[in-house]
């Protein structure tokens, strides 16, 4: 039982590494560097405009810290078969869960530390916090996350619905109060409170678990959902076999399908266009990136940052749509229809052009709405046209042939 | 001669599953491909529909081979898989339309035919549904309708009788008789031997990747006079399986 978590963790990490390698491929790392650089620049530019009188910013920071506590859970790595095979050793499961808690603790706290580090410049500016009190704030955040992870493990045991609901509510409520006191009154007061909460949570856990049975089915479902979330994230960048997008009819989008000619040359286009509109996986990706991109563009001025963002987002969308070409490869009819591969590629390129042009138009409108001059909008239009041409006519062909 | 398979050696990897197989299906003929699980029926079909490439030997369809003119070759084939395979994002109507586009069929004329078939298989009120959510039997009917609206010269039907209700089996056999009378060839693999015995014109009996015997039922019976009276009995004795009765 003691080695079980270690073995599973190793396997889990191997799998995660495998996907991370796929996600952080060369192209993406370059795009990401641009993106992070752009965000960093925007952040520092924005900081210069902040004045110490704007206390509402502290409220926002508090909310961010509070909501940020929900990032990262405990990786129990429980599997469906465990409900059968580990059932006889239920008591020993606690040792297993403690190991899971420990592993997840470091990962979760790293995220919290980053979060606090990101908000520090604002707090120094507006809330006039300094050295030691910032450290107190950091420890407060870590202690709050600690209490939350402990609660997560406690909830793996079969509690009554009331117990579950109230302990959850209490934990979140106390965390909010603690953060509010830290920022409004004194970080030291918050620190003391947070440590008391973390200790209290552990005390309750120690009281509960020896007398309570494990909620196997719920725990396994919870872990499966957690993993699905991770796979969904990876699925944004690469094909993950565990994630299957669902299909929605979306009748209200049928009007977009009428422009495609209905003949043998466009048979794959018929399939691709419907698959794109009704499958949630790829259409969701396009919608998300288009909306995020448009919002960022609206706020990123009219200089080189806007152009870089525009180019990167367009590239990201086009690049991530490429696997859609192979979406129907496992359906036998795709291969036995009397259609040639050249048509299939041409049809796919047409779809790609349509989608990227739509996105590009939305991006240009976003920039135009932010009071750009006609010349600036014009440059963006030219950049988009060239990029779409290169992506579709050259890059897609190169990758898919 | 519609389909002619000669000296086919093939399989999924380096090790051949099929060892030198030769048979043909004439126009207007229903040939039954019979064999135990793993005998090589599906492998043979996968070779004919072009999913696998032969290691040796050749497959020709009215003198066209896949290598010479893939589009003309594929144009002549309609395939009904054993497990229904559907496009998740297409409605029933769109599956039919997709088939028409892919085979370059005339829409108006084909829809007339399609509506007849939909009525026969009681799918005519489900045109706007996603067949991916249908029951297995209904999915299979969708596959049948999609295949029979084409004007293929060769119909390949992989185990059609399991999962279909008796009425649909009856209707399918009628459809097969109809396309046969128009000069199409039909190759059908099945385990339901008594139905096959009644309806197939000829049989190809596969065992362990080789053709055990082929011919009409009378020919096979004449070749193996001691093996019993039904295709079932003959087949079991040929594969070396003894039955306790």
Automatic annotation (TrEMBL), chain A:
Keywords: Membrane, Transmembrane, Transmembrane helix. It comes from the Bacteria. Pfam families: EcsB. The keyword NADP does not apply. GO terms for cellular component: membrane. The chain crosses the membrane at residues 20-43, 55-78, 103-125, 173-197, 282-299, 305-325, 351-369, 375-396. This is ABC transporter permease. It comes from Lactiplantibacillus fabifermentans DSM 21115.
Automatic annotation (TrEMBL), chain B:
Keywords: ATP-binding, Nucleotide-binding, Transport. GO terms for molecular function: ATP binding; ATP hydrolysis activity. InterPro entries: AAA+_ATPase, ABC_transporter-like_ATP-bd, ABC_transporter-like_CS, ABC_Transporter_VariousFunc, P-loop_NTPase. This is Abc superfamily atp binding cassette transporter, abc protein. Residues 3-233 form the ABC transporter domain. Coiled coil: none annotated. PROSITE patterns: ABC_TRANSPORTER_1, ABC_TRANSPORTER_2. SUPFAM superfamilies: P-loop containing nucleoside triphosphate hydrolases. It holds the Pfam family ABC_tran. It comes from Lactiplantibacillus fabifermentans DSM 21115.
